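User: I'm curious whether this sequence folds into something compact or stays loose and floppy. Could you predict its structure so I can see for myself?
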Amino acid sequence: MTRIPDVGDVVGEFSLPGGLLSEDTFTRGQYALGEQRGNPVVLAFYPGDNTPVCTTQLCSYSDGLEALSACGAQVWGISPQDVDSHEAFARSRGLRIPLLADTDRAVARAFGIAAPVIGLRRSVFVIAPDGTLHWRHVGTLGMRFPSAATIAEQLAGVTTG
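Assistant: Here's the prediction. I'll summarize afterward.
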């Protein structure tokens, strides 16, 4: 198993297919971490679309998007489901953040959070503009996740630090 990156580590590059719901249009594309260099990025890994805790988590981040975006950050939701599943999830819940498909769990493995049965451990990583890991929260139990306010506090440290 790959280890979970430590704060200060340079995060490896990756590119995943995904999509973003805007108004009534779901726009599909590739999301490459390297293209975000110069801006902070929040990676919110979650086990599954349309499951109770994941829905609560992603809705809270979508609802808190203004506070997160005010820090200049992109917020990406990442799970093992495909882009079709993500589109249905985004439309059913009105999610306003890109949802990325890590169907082979290669990115989850690279972050050391792949898990049997559930696919991956619920985790949030804040990547600094220089590509280093600024903060992480890796769930030991699947029910807990950091709030949008907690992530915004961490982002404030990235943008002012």
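Summary: The radius of gyration is 14 Å. The first strand starts at residue 15 and ends at 22.
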